[in-house]
From TrEMBL:
Highest taxon, organism lineage: Bacteria
Subunit structure: Homodimer.
Molecular function as annotated in GO: tRNA-specific adenosine-34 deaminase activity; zinc ion binding
Protein's organism: Anoxybacillus pushchinoensis
Protein's name according to its UniProt entry: tRNA-specific adenosine deaminase
Alphabetical GO biological process terms: tRNA wobble adenosine to inosine editing
Length: 156
């Protein structure tokens, strides 16, 4: 059985694919029975779709592959803490476990701003593991936004 760091490295590979095409470098991998059943990265800018987050795309792919919206017994690995939209999709998909790398102080809804994944008023709660390869995940994002700011300064 592979460990959380192994799958987070795969999510980081997805994040790097996003970065290569100018997207915010966030990647996600969905695992069932120790097998990757879906992988995705942000495509919001490319597709100009607000819902094209890595988590949503991976969930959609997994649903198609398994032929069900119930993703029970799966684990979602994502390089950045899920936002409210993605946390909602995770709960509604019945994902068992979420493992994320970097905390999101501006939009994190898996423990930073709030924890929608543990909300007892929902009919499903999700196990959360945070901080797996957090430094690598956070540094990828920091470098991306640093380059973006430098590019904007040069254009002025």
């Amino acid at each position: 059985m592979r460990n959380d760091e192994h799958y987070m490295r795969l999510a980081l590979e997805e994040a790097k694919r996003a970065e290569e095409i100018g997207e915010v470098p966030i990647g996600a991998v969905l695992v069932y029975n120790d097998e990757v059943i879906a992988r995705a990265h942000n495509l919001r800018e490319r597709d100009q779709r607000s819902i094209a987050h890595a988590e949503i795309l991976a969930i959609d792919e997994a649903c198609r592959k398994l032929g069900t919206w119930r993703l029970e017994q799966t684990t979602l690995y994502v390089t950045l803490e899920p936002c409210a939209m993605c946390a909602g999709a995770i709960v509604l998909s019945r994902i068992k476990r979420v493992v994320f790398g970097a905390n999101d102080p501006k939009g994190g809804c898996a423990g930073t701003l709030m924890n929608l994944l543990h909300e007892p008023r929902f009919n499903h709660q999700v196990e959360v593991v945070s901080g797996v390869l957090a430094e690598q995940c956070g540094e990828l994002l920091s470098q991306f936004f640093r380059r973006l700011r430098q590019q904007k300064k040069r254009k002025k």
